[in-house]
Write a structure and sequence with these properties.
Distance between the termini: 42 Å
Order of helices and strands: EEEHEEHEHEEEEHHEEEHEEHEHEEE
Strand order of the largest sheet: 1-2-5-4-13
Low-confidence stretches: 1-22, 24-54
CATH superfamily of one domain: Sulfite Reductase Hemoprotein, domain 1
Strand content: 15-25%
Mean pLDDT: 86
CATH architecture of one domain: 2-Layer Sandwich
Structural class: alpha+beta
Shape: globular
Helix content: 10-25%
Number of strands: 19
Radius of gyration: 22 Å
Length: about 425
């Protein structure tokens, strides 16, 4: 497999010189230049406004593997992040035998397997289908459903059955297979954690349920979510657009809402209700459950699990499914408090001050041919540089996997890392 783009050689990261920046560049120039941090820019990072995409949606799936420098890349959707013990063991076995021995957790609570050899796709598909992780060939890339991971555990109503109902109904509608792999359904229990992800259609499932800003009864939540998806496809067709997401359409949010309201027979409110705001950083450690007992929230360092760690988690699941979160952690309900120390020994972040609550990174070198640095290595080395700040490390300007609430961007360029700090704005 060829490597696209220039081959940048990462040399060192920690700056040993007195008064050094602590950040090294990764250029192929002699070592004397390797500790330079290039310009600090101060700007807000926003998605490009466009009514039409310049290229096809190339999101990976199980049937559509993406070629990376280290081999094939598969993405396995986990609606609501729900993952049982047997399914988790199947994923661990798949990456151990077919991939690089790790599982990547994404910012949408999906799982990725990297470094798949040519021809491994068929065996991977068989393994996933047997584990119940691939229920639909036609809809496998559109099963993007995020749900509040702690719903029904520490507060609120459990969203598990609602997620499963939405997934079943979505896969039963052939036309919705036309959605892009980036279209996101969100189910928020009122705390605002999923609203912060800015999904294409958001259901707030609390005392007064609403979907996309429209008031609905609880029994119509799934119907309303899919009405928004159908309205998006209809509006996209009318605009003759190849848009991936609602905000890519001209006046997309308002027009899609109006179409959905008409389909549902609901009056559009004069003023759209504000989405709940989530003020917290992701939880870690033990969480007190409603009615007694505890849940474990285990942070995966930079969102990567080894196969052995995945097997360890599977052994900890004794009843209800685990929940992979959009913050690259795993919630395991109904655990004994003694499991906390074992989780830390297994390499998970479990403390309130764990850097893995606030640091994320893309794949970087050597796996990605577009990356200009080994950002995984560098993020690990600088884990304590911005304590308490939400930091994302990007191997190039695409900034894959960047959380929406990122406060500090560390972006690799041909000449070194550029730091963008929202606090300087």
């Amino acid at each position: 497999m060829t490597v696209a783009g220039p081959r940048w050689i990462h040399t060192s990261f920690l700056d040993p010189t007195p008064g050094g920046s602590g950040l090294a560049s990764h250029t192929a120039t002699p070592p004397r230049d390797r500790y330079r941090v290039i310009s600090r820019t101060i700007r807000r990072v926003l998605p490009a406004a466009s009514s039409e995409r310049a290229r096809d949606d190339c999101c990976p799936g199980v049937l559509r593997l993406i070629d990376a420098v280290d081999g094939g890349l598969a993405r396995i959707r986990l609606p609501g992040g729900l993952l049982g013990a047997d399914a988790l063991r199947a994923l661990a076995a798949a990456t151990r035998h077919l991939g690089d021995g790790r599982l990547e957790l994404t910012s949408r609570a999906s799982v990725q397997i990297r470094a798949l050899a040519d021809g491994a796709g068929a065996e991977l598909a068989e393994r996933l289908a047997a584990a119940g992780l691939w229920p639909s060939e036609s809809h496998e890339r559109v099963r993007n459903i995020a749900a509040s991971p702690l719903a029904g555990l520490d507060s609120g109503a459990d969203l598990t059955e609602l997620v499963r109902d939405l997934d079943r109904t979505l896969c039963a509608r052939p036309a919705l297979a036309q959605l892009s792999g980036r279209f996101l359904f969100g189910l928020d229990d009122g705390r605002g954690d999923i609203a912060a992800l800015e999904p294409d259609v958001l259901a707030v499932v609390s005392a007064d349920a609403q979907v996309g800003g429209l008031p609905v009864s609880p029994e119509r939540v799934v119907e309303a979510l899919l009405a928004f998806a159908e309205a998006f496809l209809a509006e996209r067709a009318d605009q003759r657009s190849d848009a991936w997401r609602v905000t890519d359409l001209a006046d997309g949010v308002a027009r899609v809402r109006a179409r959905a309201a008409m389909q549902l027979g609901v009056l559009t409110p004069g003023e759209t209700p504000a989405a709940p705001v989530w003020p917290d950083t992701p939880p870690a450690g033990l969480i007190d459950q409603l009615g007694g007992g505890h849940a474990l929230v285990a942070l995966a360092p930079l969102g990567r699990l080894t196969a052995d760690q995945a097997d360890w988690l599977a052994a900890a699941i004794t009843g209800r499914s685990a929940r992979v979160t959009p913050w690259r952690s795993i919630v395991v309900p109904d655990v004994a408090p003694t499991l906390l120390a074992a989780a830390e020994a297994a390499g998970f972040g479990i403390a309130a001050d764990s850097p893995w609550r606030t640091i994320s990174a893309c794949a970087g070198r050597p796996g990605c041919g577009k990356a200009l640095a080994d950002v995984q290595h560098d993020a690990l080395a600088a884990a304590g540089r911005w304590p308490g700040r939400l930091v994302h490390w990007s191997g190039c300007e695409r900034r894959c996997g960047r959380p929406a609430r990122t406060e500090v961007d560390v972006v690799a360029t041909e000449h070194g890392y550029r730091i963008e700090d929202a606090a300087d704005a």
